[in-house]
Write a structure and sequence with these properties.
Shape of chain A: globular
Strand content of chain B: 15-25%
Number of domains of chain B: 1
Chains: A alpha/beta (369), B alpha+beta (84), C alpha+beta (303)
CATH topology of chain B: Arc Repressor Mutant, subunit A
Largest sheet of chain B: 3 strands, antiparallel
Strand order of the largest sheet of chain B: 1-2-3
Helix content of chain B: 40-55%
Oligomer: heterotrimer
Chain lengths: 369, 84, 303
């Protein structure tokens, strides 16, 4: 299997001091790619942490400084949001398991530094969903995605409530009862995830997944998510998590076994493979062969590997980028397939296409400000 | 808590919520009194200091105004009541 | 090299191909477009602006073109692309230049967090900046357009960029956008002003852009220290009058008009407080532009 050309943002993240030899043109391409892959603030963090920010030429440096300011603001906002959510759910007595960015931030993991945050993702037991939803709505969150189809999509087929948006703060919370949809072929047990979760020191009622489960969720989210445009950023998260937890020797022994136990062997395999290829994640020898054993049969492995590579490679400016969107499309289809059985998939995709035509594109803003 | 004052009016930045507020002159006076007193102040003490006359009615009105302002401070995270 | 140094065919070649790299103050934007309306607008309004070569650093990569789908043949439209994405709904093709301007406003206000950015016009005299915060309907753009033809230098008509560390205002010297009646008012007030052909039926009504004075563009690297915050309010028939605005209220008005104030958190609060410290703050009612200009003359001379 060929090793495709590595994008320069990954090279920059692996070796910030080497950036000293970049000319303005190279900085320009790097900043653009970093912005497109949502890794600009992480790049800024890596450079600043090594005391190298002053050596960056003024024009690109302004972008790094701006990205740091934004990341800090979002981290502050995320902390506040977690507090508001905890307050809203206090009466239910439920322990809230934070997922992804919110988890990394509240535990103080390196993966949180220089990261941009949007929605808060939480995991609660399936049977407590109605209470959680009611409590959040009492405290000012309201339901989005009102069409009967969307409601069914989320509630019956997916693994989460439709996103809840706060009326005043406009922030969004995604309430999950599982990390993969009910309709998916892979079935990681929520009960096992919740059982292995840990309290966050100093934070009442807040928990996070165990280290192995944080890693597995990150890998799963990356490779089975519908929105693959965030692929490189998610992989950067995975790399950061593996490096941090990898310091503990027991971690790498436990990880492949836990992956099998949670039916997440394939995502772990792909995750480790691409993280080490792109970010140079150190993987101890014994663990590497364990992870290799989790690979799919060679014929599938080759195709999937190539697809992933193309999808993870950001489109450079000026490049027509025909192949990469196609690769993303193919993986989008696959991600959907793994999440939804074929009959449901066709109906779902058809519905999405039809509704877009009828309603127009809600997500685009009006141009004039 | 971060605040700035110009001509008796005070703007406050609340780190808790990330929001910025304008306090009117009366609230500003209450805030400055609070900050000047070493171990806080009671509503009566504040009201007495701020009331223009000694009549009971004015004292009561003053206390009501002070209580309202303190409630607002609590909401904004600027000051809090101490049960003692 | 400035844009006027390029031949029209060279301008079109760059726009259609590798991109035209245009500087406005500290921001360099690479613009691509196949649309004649964009070439016309850029040639007119950015004639005095520096052109950068491709060895330098461009901050943003934007494109204004027809959309890449079937609709391009039914209703002629223009779409604004930034970094390959199209965040806005398409607009009719004849609004392509206003679309570029609005898109550039968005690029700066959404990304340039090295500055505090407020919705305000800013003009300068003798190194001192007059900041005009702009609630809708205030007549700020008309006032701004008028003042820059009566001895004031244009820093910006929409986006006040402030360096939080030094409190100084950073010029952009981009075109001034005018709406509806203002277009005729400015034509009468400043016959020398260079205006684009008005575009009708935009969501803001009829829109035209006025060229920044060449002096404003030439001196775009000269920053200015804030000296006045003045909230304008146009009212037909009103006599020009300045009223003192308590600083705490001026502060809150600026907060309300902040594009990225909340991104800066407590540092933003403190930086804005330093700006307000430096400024005499007023509200300003006016009904006649000539009278307004004289009043600001007096303001500049007095302080």
């Amino acid at each position: 299997m060929s090793d495709g050309p590595r994008p320069s943002i990954t090279r920059a993240l692996r070796d910030p001091p080497a950036l000293a030899s970049c000319n303005l043109r190279q900085w320009e391409a790097l900043v653009l790619e970093a912005r497109r892959t949502n890794l600009l603030s992480r790049l800024a963090h890596e450079i600043a942490e090594r005391g190298l920010l002053d050596r960056v030429p003024p024009a690109p440096r302004a972008h790094l400084v701006a990205a740091q300011t934004l990341a800090q603001a979002q981290a502050d906002a995320m902390r506040r949001e977690v507090k508001y959510i905890r307050k809203a759910l206090a009466r239910t007595g439920i322990d809230i398991v934070l997922l992804k960015g919110a988890a990394y931030l509240m535990v103080g993991l390196p993966a949180a530094r220089g990261r941009l945050f949007t929605d808060v993702d939480i995991l609660v037991p399936f049977e407590r969903l109605p209470e959680v939803e009611a409590a959040l709505m009492l405290h000012g969150w309201f339901a989005t995605h009102h069409s009967a189809y969307d409601q069914r999509y989320y509630r019956d087929w997916m693994h989460e409530l439709p996103p809840l948006r706060h009326a005043v703060r406009t922030t969004v919370v995604d309430v999950h009862h599982a990390i993969l949809p009910r309709t998916a072929r892979l079935k990681p047990s929520s009960a096992k995830l919740l059982a292995a979760s840990r309290p966050i020191p100093g934070e009442d009622r807040l928990r996070v997944l165990s280290p192995a489960d944080l890693v597995l969720h990150s890998a799963t989210h990356l490779f089975l998510n519908e929105e693959l445009s965030q692929g490189l950023r998610d992989l950067a998260d995975l790399d950061s998590l593996l490096r941090h937890f990898g310091d503990d020797p027991g971690f790498w022994n436990e990880l492949p076994q836990r992956a099998v136990e949670l039916d997440l062997a394939r995502p772990l395999h792909y995750g480790v493979r691409h993280a080490s290829r792109l970010f140079g994640t150190p993987v101890p020898g014994a663990a590497r062969s364990h992870v290799e054993c989790l690979a799919p049969p060679p014929w599938l492995d080759g195709i999937m590997g190539a697809l992933h590579e193309r999808a993870l490679r950001p489109v450079a400016p000026g490049e027509p980028g025909l192949l990469t969107p196609l690769a993303r499309q193919a993986l989008f289809m696959r991600a959907h397939w793994l999440r939804m059985p074929p009959m449901l998939l066709t109906r779902h995709l058809m519905s999405k296409i039809l509704r877009v035509d009828r309603d127009g594109d809600h997500s685009r803003a009006s141009a004039d400000i | 808590m971060t605040f700035r004052e110009w001509n008796g009016e005070i703007v406050v930045f609340n780190q808790e919520t990330g929001s910025t507020h304008l306090l009117d002159e009366f609230a500003g006076i209450v805030l400055r009194r609070l900050m000047a007193s070493e171990c806080g102040a009671t509503v009566e003490e504040l009201a007495t200091a701020l009331a223009y006359g000694q009549e009971a009615r004015e004292q009561q009105e003053s206390e009501q105004a002070v209580t309202a302002v303190l409630a607002e401070f609590a909401r904004l995270g600027v000051a809090h009541a101490d049960a003692s | 090299m400035i844009l006027a140094d390029l031949s029209r065919s060279e301008l079109e070649r760059r726009l259609a191909g590798p991109g035209l790299r245009l500087r406005a103050g500290p921001v360099v934007t690479q613009i691509q477009s196949l649309l004649g309306a964009v070439a016309d607008g850029v040639a007119l309004h950015y004639a005095a602006h520096p052109i950068e070569d491709s060895d330098g650093f461009a901050d943003f990569f934007v494109r204004v073109d027809r959309p890449r789908n079937l609709r391009r043949w039914l209703h002629p439209q223009a779409v604004f692309y930034i970094d390959g994405e199209a965040p806005f709904t398409p607009l009719p093709l004849d609004q392509a230049f206003p679309l570029l301007e609005w898109g550039l406003n968005w690029c700066i206000s959404a990304h340039c967090h090295q500055y505090l950015i407020f919705h305000a016009a800013v003009v300068e005299r003798s190194g001192r900046a007059l900041i005009l915060p702009a609630p809708p309907g205030s007549g700020k753009s008309t006032l701004c357009a008028g003042l820059i033809h009566r001895g004031w230098r244009l820093l910006s008509d929409e986006l006040a960029l402030i360096d939080p560390a030094t409190s100084r205002v950073i010029p952009l010297a981009r075109p001034v956008s005018l709406k509806n009646r203002s277009i005729d008012v400015i034509r009468a007030f400043a016959p020398a002003a260079v205006l684009s052909r008005p575009v009708h039926d935009t969501t803001k009504g009829t829109v035209a852009h006025m060229q920044a004075t060449p002096d404003s563009v030439r001196r775009a690297a000269e920053f200015a220290s804030p000296a006045w915050i003045v909230m304008p309010r146009y009212e037909a028939g009103a006599t020009a009058a300045l009223t003192t605005l308590p600083k705490a209220r001026a502060f809150m008005e600026m907060v309300n008009g902040g594009f990225n104030y909340s991104v800066h958190g407590r540092k933003g609060f403190e930086a804005l407080a330093r700006v307000v410290d430096l400024c005499a703050c007023h509200t300003f009612a006016y009904g006649d532009l000539e009278e307004a200009a004289k009043l600001f003359d007096a303001l500049a001379t007095k302080s």
